[in-house]
Specification:
With about 525 residues, this protein is α/β, with parallel strands linked by helices. It has four domains: about 140 residues, Rossmann fold; about 110 residues, Hect, E3 ligase catalytic domain fold (Alpha-Beta Complex), CATH 3.90.1750.20; about 130 residues, no CATH class; about 80 residues. It has 17 helices and 13 strands. Helix 12 runs antiparallel to helix 13 and helix 12 packs antiparallel against helix 14. The chain is flat and about 110 Å long.
Length: about 525
Amino acid sequence: MPYSRISDHNRAIRLMRAVIYCRVSTKEQTENLSLKSQERACRDLCEREGLEVVRVFVEGGESAKTANRTELANLLHFCSSTRPRIDYVVVYRVDRFARNSLDHHKVRNVLLAFGTGLMSATEPLENTPVGKFIETLLAGVAQLDNDQRAERTILGMKEAHRRGRYTWVAPLGYLNSKDRTQPSLLVDPPSSELVRRAFEMAADGRWSKSEVLRRVSALGLRTKSGKAVTPQTFHSLLRNPVYVGRLKAQKWSEEHIGDWEPLASDEVFRRVQHWHFQRATKRKSRDNPAFPLGRFIRCAHCSRPLTGSISKGRTGRYPYYHCPKCVGASRVRTSKEVLERAFLDLLASLQPKPSYLRLFRAIVTDVWKSERTNAQSVRKAAEKRIEALNEQSEQLDRCFIFDRSIEKAAYQRQRDRLRAEITVAELELGDARFDELEVEGVLAFAEYVFGNLVALWTNANADDRRRIQEAVFPNGLAWDGKRVGTAVTIPAFSWLTAISAEGNDVASPTGFEPVF
């Protein structure tokens, strides 16, 4: 007679209930007898132990590295909600339950909280010190086996890469080879020719990436699922060294020659990178430090940014700003000295008098103190509300846990309501927190900047000049060859102008007609 793990006393109280959990690691294993064999062994155990099988959970082909498997989640929910309770979860082997010790004990503790034990059809799991030790040992062995498999897989992939074999899903234009005597990637005739065509067109330099994509898509280029190739996918395709026969494993910082047929030559690939990636990087920094207002001031006639160039004359070289589009009498072409002098005059006209800056500083300080007081009031109110809600939550817990004065359903409703209100109050508290800013230091810095714009721009390097220009005139400026058009400045100058308008000796700046 086989050994029984359940005492006759427990069996006599009521018929014990169990669920069976079966799992295989790969889709291929679902096609053989593994699952049926597991279930049959588990049912045999339940029959010997006098357990009623309530339900069978079958996990087919899911990863063994995570506890968040679909059927396992359903099993946990079933055990938590079923009454009378489920006494045991029966598995074929511990490594079918979880493949690392952390997940094993995590799920095991959840089951214990439900009053549910664990039984193995092939291993002696008992609720004794020795039994618990054996269970822990078996879970550790399962993790060791899984870790060793992962290590062997990585080592195998590294060795395959060194031999030039591609071990991922084949990119567009190729197919994965299942025959180890063949190259790891095989040319896919329908799409490979279009990929070749895409590289050749992109290497020509006459078309943009979007135009190349549009043309090859019109010829029939599609993803392997039959969908249109997106710009992001096409961008990655043109950057992928696989198409020139190179295998670059960034994870291991290694690059090897692939064993497959390239779809583009090294020269074609180099030209593609030059025209569509390296040149794009250079365009980001094409500002000429000799012409700091270039691409910042626009032509007043066509709104095209002005560019800078140097003309050769009989007696020397002469720098000019000009519009690259307009022609004829309306064309804007101004010497560098004239335009930059006009810009400095505009900056000088914006510099407020020291007396206005002092008044501005006093107003901002006063507003700051008022806002800080208001924020502190709101923050204190939010803190009191959170404190009151936490007290209500604690009182609710006491009424339910210790006094037993409210039902579970009512407790859960009130608990959820209080949690929501506490969360909202905490968000309000975060919004009400006022940064302790050194306002005096900030105002002193602002006063220095506003009062010295001309000197700051004149003495700055090319990058800092552009930062000053964009900070003061966020929308840029327009130039018609004689004068700067309407200038939209940052709000600080509007405030300063409003303050200065209250003075008796204030006159509007002339010549440039700035509007604040």
